Amino acid sequence: MRQATPSPFPDRFEIRKIESNDIPWVLAILAHSNLYCGPIWSVALPQEGRTERVYKFCRAMEGVIRHNVADNFSYGVWDTEYKFKRPESASTGGKLYWDESNLDATSEQLLEQMDFPLVSVAVAFDGLKKPDTSLYDPIIELIPIFGKLTQAMDAGDIRKPEERKPRLLGEMLFRFGTATRPDYAKHGLAKGLGHWLLKEAARHRFLGMQIGVAHAALEKVFMNPPAPFTAKIVSDVNLAEFEVEEDGVKVKPCAACGDVPFKKIYVSFG
Length: 270
Ligand SMILES: CC(C)(COP(=O)(O)OP(=O)(O)OC[C@H]1O[C@@H](n2cnc3c(N)ncnc32)[C@H](O)[C@@H]1OP(=O)(O)O)[C@@H](O)C(=O)NCCC(=O)NCCS
Prior knowledge:
By secondary structure, the protein is an alpha+beta fold. The protein has ten helices and eleven strands.
């Protein structure tokens, strides 16, 4: 194995492998960031019922995230100088205080209740060990357009079918999700972690990583990988024009998202 991949961050921020104990925090970051700050879900889904949707999204994603974490290729950034908001959290190393009976909690209140030092995440799995499709069902049930968008992304993949799937274990890494909590956004954490993950995967002799992006920041991160890696867009869904049929009527559910990217990128390490 080649030398350990150096961290791109100052000592304050540590990259650590996500363990199963961390899953509730990972889910909270993914759900909160995507539904309140993600340029698709914060726009295309109704404002009404958003708090409840955040709680439900955590539960719906749990199976897929457990699968990702069990595959040992999911990493997070921990703030080693994190200041706990409550003494009880300090004594346990961090705690999530969401109260699922509180359907009026605001984005700020939910964030304040995420009293733990995990601040940014990137979850991924070996492409040959795809989660069973049934694990995605709860997400699609909660957010039906997630399923339709994913289908459109797969249908638009320009690669030959045999190039889309790895043949062997350890060949292609699939990045499932990236998120930084908003109080740590724009500090280079997603970029640092994303590029570190590419290098770490190459160190483990993967040939490349596939990434679905739904945010301009991540398109920038993964279309500009560290040398000598090269990136290519292999699927591109035009959200403004994306059409589905509801009750026999054609609608464009993501029209308000405008030019937000919804793309699949393949980064080759060769
Ligand atoms: C997208 C997200 C992960 C970015 O995290 P972050 O830690 O703030 O990102 P970084 O600070 O590392 O920024 C990465 C790059 O994107 C740029 N960037 C940051 N926010 C941006 C934005 N809103 N639009 C365009 N570019 C942006 C940065 O300037 C940086 O570019 P640089 O290389 O020139 O410095 C975070 O905003 C997030 O979690 N959003 C909600 C969840 C989501 O949409 N996830 C994506 C689903 S695929």
